[in-house]
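We close this part of the discussion by returning to an individual protein. The sequence in question and its structure tokens are set out directly beneath this paragraph:
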Amino acid sequence: MAKNKKRDPIPEHFKTIEEAAEFWDTHDLGDYWDLTREAHFEVDLQRRVFLTALEPELARKLSEYAHKQGISSQTLINLWLSEKLAEAQTKAG
């Protein structure tokens, strides 16, 4: 950052994660590097996985199609199931 360039102050507290994201989407962390400090923390991410059996030929076709789309089979299946569920819920009213 040029020495003469003024920077906006970093807000003391962000009310929401969206507010913080908006600030950092429009500001360069490099301009604030002198205000940073090392942080230590632990993260305990827990994810639930649900396994569902597929017919082997269906699984093969899904895998091939997903590969052609440049996404994982898991992503493709989740997208399609989300779309199908939204359609069903719309029809059900």
